[in-house]
Design brief:
Helix content is 79%, strand content 0%. The protein is mostly helical. Helix 4 crosses helix 12, helix 12 packs across helix 13 and helix 16 runs parallel beside helix 18. It is found in: Membrane. Keywords: Membrane, Transmembrane, Transmembrane helix, Transport. One of its GO terms (cellular component) is plasma membrane. It is a multi-pass membrane protein.
C-alpha cells in the first residue's frame, strides 16, 4: 500500500497548496465568494461537475448499481437532468442578477421581505449537505488507513475546512478542477473498464445476473419520480449550485458550461451503475451495497491505480463538501448574521454600521461552520436520513417561491413567505408522520407550497411596479453592480 499512500498524500498536499494560492488571490468579497465572477467555460464546467458529483453520487451510485443493476443510475441521472435544466432555462438569468445568495434573489424579486426566512431554510439544507459529505470521509479513510470513524471525519474535514477558509471560492475552484480530472481518470477511464473486464464482460454479467438488473426501469417508477422531485428540482434552487453559477464570467458561459457539466453527469451516472453491476457478479453476497465500491477497489485494482481511484473517491467527497461548506457560510453570514447585525445596529446605537473586513468576516464564518459540520458529522450516524431531510426542506420550502419568482409576475412577497413556511412545516410534519424516508412528505409538501403560493399571491396586492421594474433590469443584466464588485472589476475609464 506504500505507493497508494504516496498518491493520496501527494493529492492531499496539493489541495492544501491550492488553498494557500487561493488565499493570495482572494482579496475582495467577490473574489472570495464567487471567484470574481470570472470563470471561463472549461473551468466552469469542471467545477460545476465536481460540486454536484459527490460521495453519494460515487459511492452511493455504485451501491445502487450493485443493488438494482443499470437502473441504479437514476439517482445520479436525475442530478444531471437537473443541472441541464438549470443551465438551459435559468442559469443565464441567474448569472445576470449579480447576487451572492438565493435569498438575495428573493429579496430583489419580492421587495426585500422574503430573504431571512428563506435564508434559514437554505442554511439548514447546506449545513446538512456539508455534514453528510463529511461523514463519507469515514468510509474512504477506513479503506486507506484503517482508522476509526471519528479520526477519519476529523482528518478529511480539517483539510477541506483549511483550504476553503484560506482562499474561499478561488481555492475551491482550483481544487475542484483537480478533483474533476482525478475523478474522470480514476472512475471513468480506470475503474469502469477494469471492473467490466474483471466481471467477464457484459455477456458474462448478463449470464450471471437476473434480467431485471438490465431493465432501465427496474428500480421502480415511483422511486424514479421521487428522485426527479428531490434531485432534479433540488439542482434548480440549491445555494451550493447557484453560487457556482455566480462564478461564470458571462451568461453564455453559465449556459453552455453547465450543459457540458450536466451531460458529464449523465455519463457518470451510467458508469457508476455499470461498476456496481460488475461488483455484484464478483461479490454477490456483500453485507452492504454501499461497500461495493471500496471492496472492488481494494481487491481488484493494481497498486498505484488503487491509490488513484481512492483519490478519485476522496475528490468526489471533497468537492461536494467544500461547495456545501462555503454555501453554508455564505448564507449564514450574508442572509442571517448581516441582517441581525443590521437590526441590532439600528436599535442599539449604530453597531451595525461599523466598518468591517468582508473577506475576513466570510473567512471566519467558513471556519466556524466547518468546525460545526465536523462535530455534527461525528455525532450523526444515518447519512441517508440526514440528506433526505435536507433535500425535503429545500424543495418543499423553496422550490415554488424561487421558480415562481422567475416565471410568474403575479407572485407576491406574502405568497412567497407563506409558501416557504407552509411547505417547510408540511414536509417536517409529514416526515414525522410517515417516516423520514417516505415519499409522501415531498409530494404533499410541494403541493401545499404551490397551492398556498398561488392563493395568497392572488389574494394580496401585486408586487410594487418599481420593484418589478428593478427586477427586470437586473434579469436583463442592466442593473448596477455592487460597489465592491465595481472596484474588483474597474472600467477602462477608471484605470
Amino acid at each position: 500500500m506504500a505507493v497508494d499512500y504516496a498518491v493520496i498524500v501527494v493529492y492531499l498536499a496539493g489541495m492544501l497548496a491550492m488553498g494557500w494560492w487561493g488565499m493570495r488571490r482572494a482579496k475582495s468579497k467577490s473574489e472570495f465568494l464567487v471567484a470574481g465572477r470570472r470563470l471561463g467555460p472549461a473551468m466552469y464546467s469542471g467545477t460545476m461537475a465536481a460540486i454536484v458529483l459527490g460521495g453519494a453520487s460515487t459511492i452511493g451510485g455504485v451501491g445502487l448499481g450493485y443493488q438494482y443493476g443499470l437502473s441504479g443510475a437514476w439517482m445520479v441521472f436525475t442530478i444531471g437532468l437537473g443541472l441541464l435544466a438549470l443551465s438551459v432555462f435559468f442559469s443565464a438569468r441567474i448569472a445576470r442578477l449579480k447576487v451572492y445568495t438565493v435569498s438575495e434573489m428573493l429579496d430583489l424579486r419580492y421587495g426585500g421581505r422574503a430573504g431571512i426566512i428563506s435564508g434559514v431554510v437554505m442554511w439548514a439544507y447546506t449545513l446538512m449537505l456539508a455534514v453528510t459529505s463529511t461523514i463519507a470521509y469515514a468510509t474512504i479513510f477506513d479503506v486507506l488507513f484503517d482508522v476509526n470513524r471519528t479520526v477519519a471525519i476529523v482528518l478529511g474535514g480539517t483539510i477541506v475546512v483549511a483550504y476553503s477558509t484560506l482562499g474561499g471560492m478561488w481555492s475551491i475552484t482550483l481544487t475542484d478542477m483537480v478533483q474533476f480530472v482525478v475523478k474522470t481518470i480514476g472512475l471513468l477511464l480506470l475503474l469502469l473498464p477494469i471492473a467490466v473486464v474483471k466481471a467477464g464482460g457484459f455477456s458474462e454479467m448478463k449470464a450471471q445476473l437476473p434480467t431485471e438488473y438490465f431493465d432501465p426501469l427496474g428500480i421502480g417508477g415511483e422511486t424514479i419520480f421521487t428522485y426527479v422531485l428531490i434531485y432534479t428540482f433540488g439542482m434548480l434552487i440549491g445555494q451550493d449550485i447557484w453560487q457556482r453559477v455566480f462564478t461564470a464570467r458571462s451568461d453564455t458561459t453559465a449556459r453552455w458550461g453547465g450543459t457540458v457539466a450536466g451531460t458529464y453527469c449523465l455519463v457518470y451516472a451510467i458508469a457508476g451503475a455499470v461498476i456496481g453491476t460488475a461488483a455484484k457478479v464478483m461479490y454477490p453476497d456483500l453485507a452492504s451495497a454501499d461497500s461495493a465500491f471500496a471492496t472492488i477497489v481494494k481487491d481488484e485494482l493494481p497498486v498505484g491505480v488503487r491509490g488513484l481511484v481512492l483519490a478519485a473517491a476522496l475528490a468526489a467527497v471533497m468537492s461536494t463538501s467544500s461547495g456545501a461548506l462555503i454555501a453554508c457560510a455564505t448564507v449564514a453570514n450574508n442572509d442571517i448574521w448581516s441582517r441581525l447585525r443590521g437590526v441590532v445596529g439600528r436599535g442599539g446605537g449604530g453597531a451595525g454600521d461599523e466598518p468591517h473586513d468582508e473577506v475576513k468576516g466570510n473567512r471566519a464564518f467558513i471556519l466556524i461552520m466547518g468546525i460545526a459540520v465536523i462535530l455534527i458529522a461525528i455525532a450523526l450516524n444515518d447519512v441517508v436520513e440526514a440528506l433526505t431531510v435536507a433535500y425535503n426542506l429545500l424543495v418543499g420550502g423553496l422550490l415554488v417561491p424561487i421558480i415562481g419568482g422567475l416565471l410568474w409576475r403575479r407572485g407576491t412577497a406574502a405568497g412567497a413567505l407563506s409558501a416557504v413556511c407552509v411547505g417547510g412545516v408540511a414536509v417536517v410534519g409529514l416526515m414525522w408522520h410517515y417516516g423520514i424516508l417516505a415519499n409522501q412528505p415531498i409530494y404533499y409538501g410541494l403541493l401545499a407550497s404551490l397551492a398556498v403560493y398561488v392563493v395568497v399571491s392572488l389574494a394580496t396586492p401585486p408586487t410594487d411596479a418599481a420593484v418589478l421594474a428593478a427586477w427586470r433590469e437586473r434579469l436583463a443584466g442592466r442593473g448596477e453592480p455592487a460597489p465592491e464588485e465595481a472596484l474588483a472589476h474597474p472600467s477602462p475609464s477608471g484605470v
